[in-house]
# Entry
Amino acid sequence: MTRQKEPVRKEGNPPAHVAFVMDGNGRWATSRGLPRLAGHREGIANVEKIAIALKKRGVRYMTIYMFSTENWKRPKEEVDGIFDLLVEWFRDTVPCLMAQGVSIRHYGKPDRLPSGLAEALHEAAATSRGDDFVLGLAIDYGGRAEIVDAIRSVVSASHGGEHIDESAIADALYTSGVPDPDLIVRPGGELRLSNYMLWQAAYAELYFIPVLWPDFDELELDRALKAFDERHRRFGGL
Ligand code: FPP
# Structure
């Protein structure tokens, strides 16, 4: 079984893993008199820029929350439009990202996604090589659903439950083998995790800013990394 890696950041180094919540696309569009989907289009285009910027700064893992298990409650037209944009992005942008050494992983369950999107996710993950830079896509992802799935899987593999411990659960999460995020960034002004990486966030530094995701650029990224660098992480010690 793959072991969950401990956080690997040392003082003065970039974080190993930065996780983002893609929030504010809709508001970015409506404030400009545009349909919400125009904001989602701008938002998804920003993923490549931030991924490449992080890679250049020595970060190894980026995860982005793109669609939650609760986002199905949004109007069908918006949900369908988001999935269409994702399919386009897999066709037009993901091959360029992969050519630049980015590996793709999907965190979430593919079952409810349109088949074209599920196939694109599967294909990108299956053809990704190496872990120089891992871009994790949380799509139809929910932290609670992930923990339930992990518990089901460890219970069915265990005899009487005596081998169930934190490491067994971590190994059964969608993020198995990926270090926990050191830093979780939520643009868009909300001060909550909204069911994101509930297990993995145990010791993550949290960074909330009002800037909307489509406006989150390299300058904002450097501000977030600087804020992270100034935090003192104790992991329960002194
Ligand atoms: C969490 O807040 C935010 C997310 C799960 C990201 C949602 C982003 C989208 C649906 C747009 C993605 C677009 C593309 C093209 C991939 P929340 O708003 O779900 O939860 P909250 O109600 O608690 O704020």
Summary: Residues 21-23, 25, 40, 43-44, 65-68, 70-71, 82, 85-86, 190, 192, 194 surround farnesyl diphosphate (CB under 6 Å). Residues 17-229 form a domain with the Undecaprenyl pyrophosphate synthetase fold (CATH 3.40.1180.10). The two ends are 32 Å apart (CA to CA).
